[in-house]
Amino acid sequence: MKSREQPPDRSRPVRPDGVHGRDDRSRTRTIKLFKPYDVLTQFTDESGRATLKQFVPLPGLYPVGRLDRDSEGLLLLTDDGRLAHRLTDPRFEHPKTYLVQVEGVPTPDALDALTRGVTLKDGPTRPAVATLLDAPPELPERPVPIRFRKNVPTSWLRLTIYEGRNRQVRRMTAAVGYPTLRLVRVAVGPVGIGDLAPGEWRDLSADELRAVRTLR
């Protein structure tokens, strides 16, 4: 993990308790990563595109769920199969929270539609939590700027969903008339992205592990 006081040293991550390396008291390991824009949620790619291998030099870890190549933010990786199943099985309905920059300023009716659920090609979505932010959130600059349309404003939403369909958030905002321009996941259940910068990762704290293992 990149230290804010020392040069980057991804081979010796600092756990939140300040101890370097793996906690020997546990047989499994779960980390959180700020997946950068334009990085695939996999460790290999025959086409030579950027993958997780460039940021996570740990063997045996696998991503829990996915983030699209053009999406950013929190990604959990683990070697704990039972935990991965719990966090990806749709029966558990775990919340995932995103900061979403959209084209235009959603109306109260559009926000209400997102909250109640919208009908997509693969069926209606579950109810969500959608809030229009008063100001842009503090986020790292994206390496590839979004494309603005002249004279069309943009705005930011905080959107929490309880399922994980393919490109669901983008399809939801488009369905109510406000295409997504930038998408950053900031929380999976009780685990937040914290102060991680793009490309940085950190072991989950003991409290975070307990929280995700007891999710209902």
Structure characterization notes:
By secondary structure, the chain is α+β, with helices and mostly antiparallel strands. 15% of the residues lie in helices and 25% in strands.
Question: What structural keywords apply?
Answer:
216 residues; alpha+beta; Alpha-Beta Plaits; nine-stranded mixed beta sheet; two-stranded antiparallel sheet; globular
Counted up, domains total 2
**Number of E-state strands:** 11
Helix amount: 10-25%
Q: Unreliable runs, pLDDT <50, ≥5 residues? A: 1-25
Count helical runs.
Answer: 4
CATH fold-level name of the largest domain? Alpha-Beta Plaits
The CATH architecture of the largest domain can be named as 2-Layer Sandwich
Largest sheet: 9 strands, mixed
* Radius of gyration from the alpha-carbon trace, in angstroms: 18 Å
Q: What would you give as the CATH superfamily of the largest domain?
A: Alpha-L RNA-binding motif
Mean pLDDT: 87
Please state roughly what percent of the residues sit in beta strands, choosing from under 5%, 5-15%, 15-25%, 25-35%, 35-45% or over 45%: 25-35%
Structural class estimated from helices and strands: alpha+beta
Estimate the global geometry from the Cα principal axes: globular
User: Roughly how many Å apart are the termini?
Assistant: 30 Å
CATH class of the largest domain: Alpha Beta
User: For this entry, what is the oligomeric state of its chains?
Assistant: single chain
- Run of helices and strands: EEEHEHEEEEHEEEH
Topology of helices and strands:
Elements lengths: L29 E6 L26 E3 L7 E7 L2 H8 L7 E8 L4 H9 L2 E2 L2 E2 L4 E4 L21 E8 L6 H8 L4 E9 L2 E2 L8 E3 L2 H8 L3
Parallel strand pairs: 3-9
Antiparallel strand pairs: 1-3, 1-11, 2-3, 4-8, 4-9, 5-6, 7-8, 9-10
